[in-house]
């Protein structure tokens, strides 16, 4: 990759982050790992993922790539039809936040 810089913003127990770390390892891509604390999100996380404000975020040469890839995937009917309704997921997460007292 030469002088290209890859940074992964992640939280160690995240299943999605684990998948990204496995993919990077399989591809032999070296990256800088930055631990995110979900109750105290960094400015970098909020800047690179301003919509969902969540991990994982893969940054390549200071540009977030995972978000762009996810948007491209959602444009494919086969992908978007395979995933649960976003409103249903959002409602479930709100329910979990209430149950566990997370703000």
Automatic annotation (TrEMBL):
| Superkingdom assignment | Eukaryota
Q: Which InterPro entries match?
A: Glutathione-S-Trfase_C_sf (IPR036282), Glutathione_S-Trfase_N (IPR004045), Omega/Tau-like (IPR045073), Thioredoxin-like_sf (IPR036249)
Q: For this protein, what is the EC number?
A: 2.5.1.18
Name any GO cellular component annotation.
Answer: cytosol
Q: Which GO terms describe its biological process?
A: glutathione metabolic process; toxin catabolic process
**GO MF annotation terms:** glutathione transferase activity
Q: Where is the GST N-terminal domain?
A: 4-91
Name the principal localization, coarsely classed.
cytoplasm
**Which keywords, in A-to-Z order, does the entry hold?**
Cytoplasm, Detoxification, Transferase
Q: Which Gene3D superfamilies match?
A: Glutaredoxin
The cellular location(s) given in this protein's UniProt record come to: Cytoplasm, Cytosol
Q: What does this protein do?
A: Is involved in the conjugation of reduced glutathione to a wide number of exogenous and endogenous hydrophobic electrophiles.
Q: What name goes with this protein?
A: Glutathione S-transferase
């Amino acid at each position: 990759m030469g002088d290209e810089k890859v940074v992964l913003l992640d939280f160690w127990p995240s299943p999605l982050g684990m998948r990204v770390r496995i993919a990077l390892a399989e591809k032999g891509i070296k990256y800088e790992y930055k631990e995110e604390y979900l109750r105290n999100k960094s400015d970098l996380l909020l800047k690179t993922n301003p919509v969902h404000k969540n991990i994982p975020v893969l940054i390549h040469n200071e540009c977030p790539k995972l978000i762009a890839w996810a948007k491209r995937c959602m444009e494919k009917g086969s992908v978007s039809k395979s995933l649960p309704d976003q409103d249903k997921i959002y409602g479930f997460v709100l329910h979990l936040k209430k149950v566990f007292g997370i703000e």
